[in-house]
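1st attempt posting a full record on here, be nice pls
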Amino acid sequence: MQVYIVTLALLILFTYIFRPSKTHEGKRRYAIFSFILLGGLSALRKYTVGNDLHYQYYGNFIKYHGMPWKYIFGIRTRYEPGFLTFFKLVGMITDNPQAMIAIHSLLVVGVFIFFMYKNCDDLPIAVYLFVTMNHWFQSMVILRQMLAVCILIIATEILYSKLPMLVRYLLFLGLLFLATSMHYSAVIGIVFLVIKNIRFSKLAFLISTIMGYTLFVSDAFFDWVMAQIRDFLVNNHVYAKQYAYFSSQLLDESKYTMSGIYSFVPYLVTFIFAGILLMGWKVVVTIRPQDKNELSHRKIEYCGVYSNDFLMYAIMIVVMAKIIAFSLPVFSRFTQYFMPFEYVLLGRVLKSVNSTFVRRQSIFIVYAITTLAFIMMNSNLRLNAIMTGTVPYMFFWQ
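the predicted structure (as tokens):
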């Protein structure tokens, strides 16, 4: 656990050294430092760091990397053809499984850091939350899905690019197909095409907030929704097997545990404050009387290409799916594709706060609470072993 605590300390230290919020060069240097630090630690970790890596991917790379191309689509395995192709391509370079770990780690962390560098108004807090929200740990565990997530991140970047519309949509669909070949759950990426073109209104915000609250506090409503979803999944030949697999891991009490709450409350808080600050409500966030006449809708230029509507829908999906996942864990798989947009939306929320004092205090609270939760959860070796198996950290030569 000491390695991870030092990592958090270094991320904070270099925020003050590079001052990424002040200059573009500082932001670029902080992004490079973050990539080297997080990517390096992921790449140099022992195969025992990360449950799925330890019990699946390490041994299966040795088993499948030399497989002839003609068997990629025909072999009976729970791995999708795209991921077997990843094994094969790495195997053409080297048969060392540690090289596979390093290539995967640098690729995944690189895509995430570049995404945050390009789109986040507050890069340091985005990178910090990438660690403390256990997203970094997930990248060391769910190797197939993280490759799919990275492909869809690239796909959404293309979707918002300035290329001709037909080219954008064709490239997006091609990358969506590639992501699905890495992990079946990436099919949810089709939702990005929908939410890109739908305005997130105040009414949508109010309705989704009320529904989310009711879903969480009302056992009767929650059970009814679960029954409808369960029936749909069980009767769907595509997801029936996956539903049975994930439901076997069900922990009914998880809804009210610390890890269960922490898995969705930060997204809920961001969603609520984004709805208040970014949607034109006449709200002034300040504690200083002389600022009361400031306009809450002052002109602000945000980093990145994503619309606030797109980001609001993305985080709304995360919140709803996280609540449903308390009963149907399969839904937690789908949230991975929308979670990166939390970092973008949170930066915009903080930038929208009028008072510098309130903004700084808010940032401090975010750092303090997420750090405390991260340390408390992952210092519990039994809990960490269930969630990710990333503690203790060990270098590959140990």
